[in-house]
């Protein structure tokens, strides 16, 4: 061969096995390979894979050893067709970046794994069209059941076509709404933390500390959980000024905006309940920028007990949803539905009041400095 002949296109192609795809991946072992390695029939391997109790211990051990030696992985699609089960659960939620949804999803995922299930997540980024897409996609993936958080389950007035879609899915697979509900749809169950009770516990806590002038910061009128908390607040506090209710949203920026609106009121409250901990963190940051002391000038409480509540200064008094119990009850309800044993339709989990340093007994009002006289 002449010098550089090996660099001709023909030689390069014939010698480069990557271009030909010869060693891109190794062929996966099959059930036939396992049978040959274990010196048993294919039907015996199949019975072991399907959990058939008629296989004697010696044959089962030989098959399991062969599977380990060959690093054999069962074909889950084939097993799904055989058992009519995929051992997967779909989970749809609006925002995995939101610490509340991240925390509840972590508990659901761990609990599902302990029960022998894998969760497939659909993160809709709070977009209804993507929510519909995930509903179709997960159903096509033949999940055994569906956990549904946020979105339609927290919409006080869902569209008729969305309800129709949900009902079509509910006719095909069990659905559990987590911290929400779809009362118009035949879902298996709604599993919720007692958010109304949690809001009442926060207000009672502030009342016990001498606060009677209390504001409500954050929330949205198109989210059922916001409306429930607002109703409890109105009944317990009867706010004298409209500015004491600031339904600005659910984010850090919503907290800063809520405080700005609150400061426009003709009189100021001594305490405020926030729709969640993110809003409370936004209020706290904005208060510092304006020279407002928390908790001396304004006692502040949040809701959700996400990690932020523990790292703020002062640390935040808040409500914990009892996440592990909510996840346990939701998974138990869904698995009951999968097994054809419908659970109780509405399940409520008690919340937990977490007392920290952001709310203290009512303090005497600071005198404002008089404006200089010209």
TrEMBL record:
Domain HTH lacI-type: 29-83
Residue intervals passing through the bilayer: none
Domain of life of the organism encoding this protein: Bacteria
Pfam family, any one: LacI
UniProt cross-references to SMART domains, sorted A to Z: HTH_LACI
CDD domains, sorted: HTH_LacI, PBP1_LacI_sugar_binding-like
GO molecular function: DNA-binding transcription factor activity; transcription cis-regulatory region binding
Keywords: DNA-binding, Plasmid, Transcription, Transcription regulation
PANTHER family hit by this protein: HTH-TYPE TRANSCRIPTIONAL REGULATOR GALS, LACI-RELATED TRANSCRIPTIONAL REPRESSOR
Protein name (record): LacI family transcriptional regulator
Organism: Deinococcus ficus
């Amino acid at each position: 061969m002449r010098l550089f002949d090996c660099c001709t296109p023909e030689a390069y192609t014939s010698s480069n096995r990557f271009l030909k795809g010869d060693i891109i991946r190794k062929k996966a072992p099959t059930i036939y390979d396992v049978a040959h390695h274990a010196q048993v029939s294919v039907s015996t391997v199949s019975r072991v894979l399907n959990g058939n109790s008629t296989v004697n211990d010696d044959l089962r051990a030989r098959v399991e050893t062969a599977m380990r030696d060959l690093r054999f992985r069962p074909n889950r699609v084939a097993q799904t067709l055989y058992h009519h089960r995929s051992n997967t659960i779909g989970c749809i939620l609006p925002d995995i970046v939101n610490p509340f949804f991240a925390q509840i999803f972590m508990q659901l995922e761990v609990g599902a794994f302990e029960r022998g299930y894998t969760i497939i997540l659909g993160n809709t980024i709070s977009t209804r069209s993507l929510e519909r897409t995930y509903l179709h996609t997960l159903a096509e993936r033949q999940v055994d059941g569906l956990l549904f958080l946020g979105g339609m389950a927290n919409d006080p007035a869902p569209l008729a076509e969305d309800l129709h879609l949900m009902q079509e899915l509910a006719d095909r697979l069990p659905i559990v709404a987590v911290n929400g509900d779809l009362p118009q749809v035949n879902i298996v169950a709604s599993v919720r933390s007692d958010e109304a009770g949690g809001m009442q516990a926060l207000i009672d806590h502030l009342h016990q500390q001498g606060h009677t002038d209390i504001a409500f910061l954050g929330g949205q009128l198109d989210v059922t959980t916001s409306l429930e908390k607002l109703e409890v607040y109105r009944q317990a506090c009867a706010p004298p000024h409209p500015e004491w209710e600031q339904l600005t949203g659910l984010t850090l920026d919503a907290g800063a905006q809520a405080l700005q609106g609150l400061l426009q009121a003709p009189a100021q409250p001594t305490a405020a309940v926030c729709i969640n901990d993110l809003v409370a963190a936004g209020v706290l940051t904005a208060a510092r920028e304006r020279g407002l002391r928390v908790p001396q000038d304004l006692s502040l409480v949040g809701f959700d007990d996400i990690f932020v509540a523990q790292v703020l200064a002062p640390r935040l008094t808040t409500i914990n949803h009892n996440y592990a119990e909510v996840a346990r009850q939701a998974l138990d309800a869904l698995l009951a539905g999968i097994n054809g044993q419908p659970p109780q339709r509405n399940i409520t989990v008690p919340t937990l009041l977490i007392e920290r340093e952001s709310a203290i007994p009512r303090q005497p009002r600071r005198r404002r400095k008089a404006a200089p006289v010209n």
